[in-house]
Design brief:
It is a single chain. The protein is 76% helix and 1% strand. A two-stranded antiparallel sheet has the order 1-2. The N terminus and C terminus are likely disordered. A hairpin with a 2-residue loop joins β1 and β2. With 577 residues, it is mostly helical. The relative contact order is 0.13.
């Protein structure tokens, strides 16, 4: 039996940081679960009201524009602020002059995305409007919808000072309420406009406008929700009252002298380094949308988008909140205390915190590997059966079914990569980030070559999922090696072997897959659902097939719990000082 790491064996050096992080994680997961269940129901109507062409334009190309503006403008600043925000600063603990001065410098830095967003949004919009194909530009109200998306992105950036303050003070409730209400309003507005458009004689004219107005509703609701909860922030950096010029400062560059009057310079340099790195990282993250926008017909772009929408439900509900809270937790627990000294090998970390960080990281990877095994074992059996229930008829002839099947293999690497890169971003120095940027360029070449190779072999749009999988595997190996190097350098035991699933659990999952997929009931249920559709879901054959899967799944979970899960969770909620 593998020796499994246990959660929380050591105490937090920041009091209840682990408990606050777990509370934040569950809150974010609750937000994602509630909002996604609501939007899942409404999206079923959206998919049937919008044509694959309109949905492909909105969900692939306009979302690419939106994510480009937001990612390049704010990602680097967000990550830098998570590492720099004082560990002992919450809504209840403020008042020290030095601490307030530091927080003011970070508050100024949190306004930087607004400044960066103006040129980034203008350049992105002009470039896209120029390079978009005629088929895209000739859709009704294309330029109006594009302008609304850009304006929505800028509106969302105005929420950044409040978002960063909420994350720095671990005020997850403010974010949960703002984003939950925003997602709900976005879906409702889109649905209402599409429903109105479907009643008009020239149905489909306002399809793009519907998605654009929905996005603008989201950014507006998030902004005013934050304002209601936290008050109006500072949207422009203000000069710090306690910062005075000195001989040491006077000998610096002009940029340094000016920046030091408004920002914490080390945090500013780190955010600029991360922002520069985010360009390459964004190309890797959104590479599938970039290639689709150039190569794939709009009809297939809609099919790919709906498949990714379904496939990413697990990622959005579980993996995204987990990754974000890992960034917060590891950034706090591995932030060197102010009184510790640096050596030639880098900052000195508390040994108890290092041990706990290693333990938490191994435990998270162990749980994700076990969940990945279950996803592959059961989703590969049940997905083909329920395709006719998930996809509207007009999407069955697109690439959506094949893309959904490929996503089953993509989800595990997506989950593990998120946690490992969250850890890396929490410990990386500027030199580490520059080194990673060079590797990311190499990974982008791997992605492009893989995608072209799969396309040339006739895999179609599924090529992008397989290429992304190969790319993420390479990034996982790099991030895992960096984590090992970090712990070895700080003389902390860290064995990846401790996170691998036990052979008993793997055997139970394999036997469950064979027992479900090889039965006559499986083939009868598939034929019944394909011929009768939704009406067959309550038939005895389908219900018995589902019951068999639930029973086998519970057996696998019980095996995991008995062989490793109880060791992981035994000390998960240990009281901390």
């Amino acid at each position: 039996m593998n020796q499994q790491p246990s959660l929380g064996r050591s105490k937090d050096k920041d009091g209840g940081l682990l408990k606050r992080s777990l509370t934040s994680l569950f809150s974010l997961m609750g937000l994602q679960l509630g909002s996604r269940l609501l939007t899942f129901v409404l999206n079923q109507a959206l998919f049937r009201l919008a044509s694959p062409r309109a949905y492909g334009t909105a969900a692939i190309q306009f979302e690419l524009i939106l994510s480009t503006i937001l990612f390049l403008s704010r990602e680097g600043v967000r990550n830098a602020l998570l590492r720099a925000w004082p560990r002992n600063t919450t809504i209840h603990t403020q008042g020290s002059t030095s601490n307030d001065d530091h927080v003011s410098a970070l508050t100024n830095l949190s306004a930087l995305p607004i400044i960066l967003g103006l040129p980034v949004s203008l350049a992105t919009a002009v470039a896209y409007a120029t390079l978009a194909s005629d088929d895209v530009r000739h859709q009704p109200h294309f330029h109006m919808a594009l302008s609304t998306y850009v304006f929505a992105a800028l509106s969302e950036l105005f929420s950044e000072p409040m978002h960063n303050r909420a994350m720095g003070e671990v005020r997850t409730g403010a974010r949960v309420r703002a984003e939950g209400l925003g997602i709900t309003c976005k879906t409702l507005v889109t649905y209402i406009v599409l429903l109105y458009d479907s009643t008009r004689p020239d149905s489909g004219e306002f399809a793009l406008v519907a998605f654009a107005l929905g996005q603008f509703a989201y950014s507006s609701v998030v902004f005013f929700s934050y304002v209601y909860q936290m008050g109006y922030p500072t949207f422009w950096p203000t000069r710090l009252a306690t910062r005075q010029s000195s001989k040491a400062t006077a000998s610096r560059s002009t940029f340094y002298r000016i920046a030091s009057q408004y920002f914490d310079v080390s945090s500013l340099y780190l955010s600029l380094t991360m922002t520069g790195q985010s360009i390459v990282k964004h190309i890797l993250t959104e590479g599938d949308k970039i290639i689709l926008s150039w190569w794939s017909p709009l009809q297939d772009q809609g099919g790919y988008a709906i498949a990714v929408n379904y496939g990413s439900l697990v990622a959005r509900i579980v993996f995204q909140p987990l990754e974000e809270m890992c960034r917060v937790y590891f950034s706090r627990i591995l932030c060197p205390a102010a009184e510790t000294k640096s050596t030639s090998t880098g900052a000195q970390f508390d040994r108890r915190s290092l041990g706990q960080a290693s333990e938490i990281l191994l435990s998270l990877v162990s749980i994700q590997l076990a969940c990945s095994v279950l996803v592959i074992a059961f989703a590969t059996v049940y997905l083909p059966i329920f395709l006719h229930l998930l996809l509207p008829s007009q999407y069955l002839s697109t690439s959506a079914p094949k893309v959904l099947a490929a996503w089953i293999w993509y989800i595990p690497v997506l989950a593990i990569n998120g946690v490992l890169e969250a850890f890396f971003s929490s410990i990386a120095t500027s030199q580490d980030l520059q080194r990673q940027s060079r590797w990311l360029v190499g990974f982008s070449v791997v992605f492009i070559v893989s995608a072209i190779g799969f396309y040339a072999s006739g895999f179609g749009d599924v090529s992008l999922v397989y290429a992304n999988t190969i790319n993420l595997v390479a990034r996982i190996i790099y991030a895992a090696q960096c984590a090992s190097t970090f712990f070895n350098r700080n003389k902390t035991a860290h064995r990846w072997k401790a996170s691998t699933p036990t052979w008993q659990f793997l055997l139970a999952a394999a036997l469950s897959y064979l027992a479900i997929s090889r039965t006559k009931t499986h083939h009868q249920a598939a034929i019944l659902l394909q011929t009768k559709g939704h009406g067959a879901i309550i038939s005895a054959i389908v219900m018995s097939h589902l019951a068999q899967g639930v029973g086998m799944g519970l057996c696998c979970i019980a095996t995991w719990w008995l062989t490793s899960g109880r060791y992981l969770m035994r000390r998960a909620f240990v009281k901390t000082d």
